[in-house]
Amino acid sequence: MGEFEHSFLQLFLGSIFVTHRAEWRCHRRLRTARPNSARTISGYRTSRFSARARPESAFSLTPPLLVIEILSPEDTLRRTAAKAAEYLTFASRHVWVIDPNARVGYCGTPNGLELARSGELSIPETPIRIVLADLFAELDKVVKA
Asked: Residue 38: what pLDDT?
């Protein structure tokens, strides 16, 4: 798998969240994981937990509800598990890791990455849900095109 697949999944997941933004009451936030880190993360907050439905700026000190990490060809699962632990430590409540090469998803937990055996990634007590088979079927369409 190359960079195209990684980029496509970023775009496609973003479009899913945009499509469902009213129903899921979410918006995208970007910020660095640590004050001195060059890395930015993409996360989603829901307005369910605050009175404001829109972010005041693109950068926020408020941790996102969800951080999604899509493995790039050079990423390792071990390094990504460390990132997930960092995100959870920073107070993001949910971390999803998607591996386009292995066609699987993981949920970050305090004990490490847990394979999404149900075939979906979701956030309990919210309508936010991604079916991995659907996600990878869309990827297969563009890769084979």
From this structure: 35
